[in-house]
Fold each of these.
Amino acid sequence: MRIVGGDWRGRSLKAPAGRDTRPTTDRVRESIFNILAHGSLAGVLENAHVLDVYAGSGAMGFEALSRGATHATFIEKDRTAQNIIQQNACTFRVARDIVVLPLDGTKLPSPPMKAKAPFNVVFMDAPYGQGMTSIALLGLRAKGWLAQDAALIIELGEKESCVIPPAFEVMDDRAFGITRVLFLCLSTPTE
């Protein structure tokens, strides 16, 4: 795996071994970030605080940092993946600009101070086919993780159905091989 754009373009990313994580492919990441750079969300990454939920290697958060975000918080409950994220942060010399939270995306508490919430950009890549995405979206909104102008980029399996809670609006829906990507925004104010 590698960073596909920005200041760290071409630099390698470590990823957890085995099948417990499913890193977003370079091609899908490049497509997502091209949409973020040139579509209706252009400029959203500049000085952003981003949240990477079900982070795995942290590829989405590190890609955002490479492209202008100033802080990334990673939610990942797997200890091996947490260590990989820390190693990647050291490689890119941004250990002070990240926070790794050992949380379950379906059981989110209110964000701790060190997370630097609320977030205006959120990446989420829950395990496919397990119904975790809807639950995590509700938790993010209810517990104060999201800024009013939050953009959420959600990865799903190509044929996976997902009930998007009414508080969110689908701005775009794209297919990239076996991956489906939804671009969401908040459609109602957070409470």
Amino acid sequence: MATNSQHHWISVDEYMELDQISPIRYEYWEGQLVAMSGGNSDHALIATNIIAALRQHIKAPCRLYNSDLKVQIAADKFLLPDVHVTCDPADLVGKIQAVRSPRLIIEVLSPTTERADRGRKFFAYQRLASMQEYVLINYRLRLVEVFRREQRKWSYETYQSGEMVELASLNLTLPVDVIYEETSIPIYDQLDTLEEEERGS
């Protein structure tokens, strides 16, 4: 997950060099570095659950990546989504530094990233002709949001505990509860109880 920005400008070449030696992972947005912080156990479990479920279904010519590999969405924008899938042959050749034609991007939201994930990042992703679906995984309750490209427009669907998430870009359905397996995140019907407990603490 992304956190604080570094407010001095650096070039793409400098960013790439830093990426090879820095113990800290950074996203790159128009000359600015955005440091990636570690998530909590729920965040890690969700990302792991998604990758484990998708890994069984992703076959050539598609490939599944985690946040270790960058996605380049413009000459001056490199992001590190939690999970992404590409089916473009150019993204599958050799040891690439960044995927340029993602088909599916999945982000596990957090308090520090939600605004960017819903805002500037999503707007930037929409410009990629390859993008077919953008998925946001909620961190407060078991709720999955799917933005899906349909011709020239983007549709929006939500899925809750007990439902199957449709990933049309992969011709695949995935249970919401598999995504949240072993996490402490409550189902939608428990949200009111959770908020009452937080107010009482």
Amino acid sequence: MFDQAALFEQIPAETLEAMRRAAEGPRTEYRIAPVPQTKSLSVLRDASKTCDACPWACHDHQTVFGEGPKDSAIMFVGEQPGDVEDRQGHPFVGPAGAMFDAVLDEIELDRHQVYVTNAVKHFKFKLRGKRRVHQTLNARDINTCKPWLLTELEIVKPKVLVCLGAIASKSLFGSQFKITTERGHIFKSDHAPFSLATWHPSALLRAPDEVTQKRMRREFTADITKAWRKI
């Protein structure tokens, strides 16, 4: 006789959770993020894997949490994982990540010595044929995921905080923050003794022409160098 209970006992818990979410179908509502009170990055990272606070935390893509040393003196905060990051489960490993790594190499800043994360931990996309196209985050996406980011900041306690792009900057410095006018300025924030906002590496890749891209690349490199010198 077929023993259904015995069969389910053999299925890994994460697979059962994915099956449950698939059966529920797509969601549109937002929930409170289940962020634990902890001083451990590994505990926080493990807890984030089962977060379903936003509609994007569905069964077909994963949480992409921050990576880097707990005692890192500098933290970089981007926007959200992209298609490559979602598939690999690591932040800044796609085209923008390659640009980011190239600049770090240029100024001799070891990627393994910095903490890199995103304001939002899930990839928000829209299917266009077989392609998953990046979608702009809204305030609910950012605020729902913000407790994870704030807890990362509390644990790492970076001396220098660098926000990459407008989304990360507005998330941590306020909705009135304008990267076009405040970029490259170092100031003290609620999150670090030294804070700075600069272009997101993807903005360099989307530059309308080569002249603009070279200018933005110089500005981006100068801003990261300025932040690095504060350590």
Amino acid sequence: MYGNHRGRGGHDLGPLGRGGRHESAGGFKGGRGRGRMFEHGDLKLVILNLLQARPSHGYEIIKAIEGLAGGDYSPSPGVVYPTLTLLEEIGQVKNIPEQDGKKRYGITPEGSAFLEGQREALQRILARMASAGSIADARQAPELQRAMENFKMALHFRLGRGSLDAEAIRKIADAIDRAAVDVERS
């Protein structure tokens, strides 16, 4: 049950705890391929940290992680719930039954002690998530969205006007390269 998992398209999602993926093998919404949010064991630490703040349902944990990453990453239920089950089996999380039958999870003293021993690793993970969140926020800036759409549309229209000779291709590529350098230097 806790071996390697396959996502859509048969992509290897790695062993439990390697970090969730949302609808793609890229690890981020939309599969933009910027790498994994979590390394082995990182998701467990984030979940324990969230549960130390307050007991939560699985979907609340998913939403909290998505919020920490600025909405650019959301672990799948297929990763979060098995991780919660594993944490419960090893005694770091407990199930708090509710009247409606839903499971709410809380951290145990063993989970708190483990988390305390991993505080430095947790701080690195949270810093990485905060960085991803700030990048996601910047990416959503209306000015950048408009400029990217203008660029795509200009290129689309130019390519739609007919075939390009080698000189026209070189000029377009040079313009794109100059813009890339300017963005990188800003």
